[in-house]
TrEMBL record, chains A, B:
PROSITE patterns, per database record: ROK
Transmembrane segments: none
Family, similarity comment: Belongs to the ROK (NagC/XylR) family.
Species per Swiss-Prot/TrEMBL record: Chitinophaga arvensicola
Protein's name according to its UniProt entry: Sugar kinase of the NBD/HSP70 family, may contain an N-terminal HTH domain
PANTHER family in the cross-refs: BIFUNCTIONAL UDP-N-ACETYLGLUCOSAMINE 2-EPIMERASE_N-ACETYLMANNOSAMINE KINASE, ROK (REPRESSOR, ORF, KINASE) FAMILY
A GO MF label: kinase activity
One family name in Pfam for this protein: ROK
Keywords attached to this entry: Kinase, Transferase
Highest rank taxon of the organism: Bacteria
Amino acid sequence: MTTQESIFEIFSEENLAGVAYKNKSLKRSIIDHLDQAGNTTITDLTVALNISVPKTTSLINELVTDGIVKEYGKDDSKGGRRASMYGLVAESGFFIGVDIKNFHVNLGLLNFKKELVNSEMHVPFTLANTPESFKDLIQVILHFINNAPVDKKKIFAACLNLSGRINSEKGYSYSYFHFNEEPLSQIVENAIGIKTFVENDSRAMAYGEFYNGTVHDEKNVLFLNLDYGIGLGIMIDGKIYRGKSGFSGEFGHIPIFSNELICHCGKKGCLETEASGQALIRLFKERIEQGHTSSLLKDKKMPPNLRVADIIQATLNEDVLCIELIAELGEKIGRGISVLINLFNPELVIIGGILADTGDYIRLPIRSALNKYSLSLVNNDTQLRMSKLHEEAGVIGGCLIARHNLLSFNK
Amino acid sequence: MTTQESIFEIFSEENLAGVAYKNKSLKRSIIDHLDQAGNTTITDLTVALNISVPKTTSLINELVTDGIVKEYGKDDSKGGRRASMYGLVAESGFFIGVDIKNFHVNLGLLNFKKELVNSEMHVPFTLANTPESFKDLIQVILHFINNAPVDKKKIFAACLNLSGRINSEKGYSYSYFHFNEEPLSQIVENAIGIKTFVENDSRAMAYGEFYNGTVHDEKNVLFLNLDYGIGLGIMIDGKIYRGKSGFSGEFGHIPIFSNELICHCGKKGCLETEASGQALIRLFKERIEQGHTSSLLKDKKMPPNLRVADIIQATLNEDVLCIELIAELGEKIGRGISVLINLFNPELVIIGGILADTGDYIRLPIRSALNKYSLSLVNNDTQLRMSKLHEEAGVIGGCLIARHNLLSFNK
DNA sequence: CATCGTTTTTAAATTATTTTATTTACGAAG
DNA sequence: CTTCGTAAATAAAATAATTTAAAAACGATG
């Protein structure tokens, strides 16, 4: 029996009854506990799961022969005989995260102990809603899998992060690659030969930041993905909140401005029309046309194909116009966040996405807008923190989601 | 052993281990199942809880001798011996809900089977943040308890609904009756001699509507309490979402207007300044001053102490000005709701609170504003429904919260 | 460096639960 | 109205878990 088979046995949805069912759930609980609490002793598990020592011992032994758990030496002395520490086996399974951006793809490989063992960042790729773009993507993924330093059979699952509207339960992506009735997850799964899930990019980043990033004890956390659009990942009680069909967090399209700009979603007054990376480029052009200047100009003219990354870089190089624009953006985003704080009373709001790389240039205007627009009692309750994982948030989150979905913890 | 003692034994937080612990949790699970699924058979429980028939039988028998469960005749024939139906005993315990409004109090008494056995609506009372008002309130509650048609000892818990910021976990009310450091829940508990919880009024209404009202299978539901202020109760995955400190749902104070009106919260541009019952009265006055007329005028002058209820009544009597104002209000509320829909992608939004009594006069403008302001894909996903429980939502919700907290189901 | 207190682990005894078999109850068909 | 098929409830047997007791492992103390 290979490791893979035994893992699938434990995590299969097969309907067992009676003792077999109970043992299976107990084993899952043990893995869940080892997953969350790290390596522990049998005594620890005994109190955590409310089962006796002999029972725990026999279950652990089975998991050890299954290859999912192994002994990690002895515990520190607590006065008597030292207890054996048990923990998950890092090499017993791997998971892939594919984070698809507008102009590149990031990929990562995670082991069973939630450690990133391999990653490829900034693989060139242009996201377009065409079959060609999709084919390119599959090639990028296959290349990553073939170059991965592990047995392909031990890669249990993958997760694709895409912006736009995603129904991760059913595997549909509505904004990209929705060419026929078959769910995107299924199409990719067939193409790469690995169980595949899809998830909204901001939610995946939120998940990564939540479980492997800047979040410690907080349970209700909002993650902002400030990119060309404005995404929002909502974590409630430690779980991703997706809404009815997976369309939650359309923060960029809340109507809080009284302008006449038509958003690409077709509505007027969306937050995204004033406070996104796209808006940033538009505002930059407008200022240049009004006669302002910037270090980004080539021969005193607008550079062609100006990207958000350029403006971020210029800001960090202390370009005055860019600093001003980022501050304006921050003010507007802060006003948006104050809506979120009033509604969610979160413990923590994380500023992520490429625009978060501007650091204090964007953080301080956001902070002051929050004081201006949200109820102080509620606002004081909420921490504002910058992303810790930066551009790795997506891949790590994707890997963790693949892992979580396959193992179906906490369900 | 009295019934009360035995109930507290099962639901006590006392730390048992081993078999005793397991039996206790199984008993709780049985009660939980009977609570949600109604009367069922032993075979049913066997598959639902994954335990054997003899084990289920012995647990049920213990619960029967405890007085919490009893037999409710035989099941319909399915071909063989007819199964006994078991269910909760309605009279084994009672719960009180106290819904405190600006100008009156509603009280209700719920039995163990979630049936409202007694209620007193519109008990005269004026809510003010003074010790006198609080004393009056206690008198109202004591009067209700003493007149209740059940043994006072069998009333296990009560819940107080108040508007404003409430930390229900710790029992604090910040907007009303926060006279000293002791939690309000504790003060009331000492005064009435019954375990007491406090909850935000809109959340309690949402809870009532969710479990005994218009909600059927939906799990992610938003409830709008349109009163003098605008409250929001958020139900996620069947649970009340309270946020970090219980300040979630401050919907009335999201800054989505660019007006110069100072809200009573101290900020500008709050939804409440334009779309609440308070705003309605202000707008009515303004129109009258501009020369408009209405059936509500006395000698062609503003009536003193005009209440929202008066405008609602006039609307239902087809007063043209009031109908217009309600439509304007609906439009603005709809714009606010579109923010919620974009963020939450809920299955259902319930329009409740006194202004919901205007029915289609407010529903239709809300509906059309939603089409105008929210993403169609997301919007089409969400149902809009009017409250079913109307002014009883609060009391029923309060009773159910008291019951839930005491029994601590799903925890 | 042997002994003692402490804690984990293993083993044996006890208790509890499930599984299987039997009995009881019910409706329908002959 | 008896018989037969089916399903629930009960009883007995078998299995599995917990509890208690004993052994092993370890550090500290004298």
